[in-house]
Model the fold of this input.
Amino acid sequence: MMLSNQVQQPKDIEVTNPPTDGISDLSFSKTSDLLAAASWSNEVRIWEVMGDGSTVAKAMYSHDGPVLTCQWSPDGSKLASGGADSAGKLFDVSTGQATQFAKHDQPIKSLRWIDGANIVATGGWDKMIKYWDLRQQTPISTVAISDRLYSMDTHGSLLVAATADMSINMYDMSNPTVPFRTIQSPLKMQTRVVSCFTTGGGFAVGSIEGRVAIQYSDVKDNQGNFSFKCHRDGAPAARDSSVYAVNAISFHPIYGTFATAGSDGGFTFWDKDSKQKLKVFNKQNGPISAAAFNRNGSIYAYAVSYDWSKGYTGASADFKNSIMLCPVLEADIKPRKK
Done:
């Protein structure tokens, strides 16, 4: 009998006690094995991922409406969250208490920590980005943007904000109130997600049309910009192919490769530098609404949860929300030569 030298893909592990309603965001701590999930059940839940991949529920706190975003502080001591109650909350791991730190006039769609443990940027449907020093009660800066904020991300000194009118604003955190560059999305339809390269210098954009664009923030690097089709059934060029939204783009913390996840229930690993598809995984029984790599990129967490891409009629009362942990094999995520 001939033995195969191919490494067997380990099975994905389901997180215990998942949210009871739609899962809007996932975030791993950068200093520990804590995973947080924001959900439409008005809750943020936190688990510890053990060495064998099993999970232990550690904490839960509430908002007064669906929670749309959450992210750990760089030092892992706090978790910030925001949602439809237009409030930003801060959970302190050491005390187990959550307190409000931010307020918008409409829902907070995204938030990000700015290069340290004391500044948080929040973006809302009130067409505002606000910067909060957690040692103060009021925002240190408020920036008017052209439309509702749909997605936001940061890496180093770069903050990227995508709005409902398909504008993408780029800010340097040395001058955080004035964008150094504004572009229209290179994609044709509504932006779902922006995600900064973990290697710096640019970001990826995902849209509802099953397409991703790779964009460099410096004009001199524009020759490296490109877009590609993904999360489609049938031949990508076929007129009758089914097209699904790209809901999550997650860059690997070590290799700078990335994963996309979509409404088709699939997720795929990619290498932007060699423009190659690295690994396609089996589709789940529902849309993937959110995803994240852990601190060393050995785990890819994804939420199987209805994303409202088919409206109210697509919702099923008996659909089970779940969060899965996919063990990441180095061979599947490591960059490849062109």
Q: What stands out?
A: The chain is about 0% helix and 50% strand. The helical segments are 330-333. The two ends are 35 Å apart (CA to CA). The CA atoms of residues 95 and 159 lie 30 Å apart.
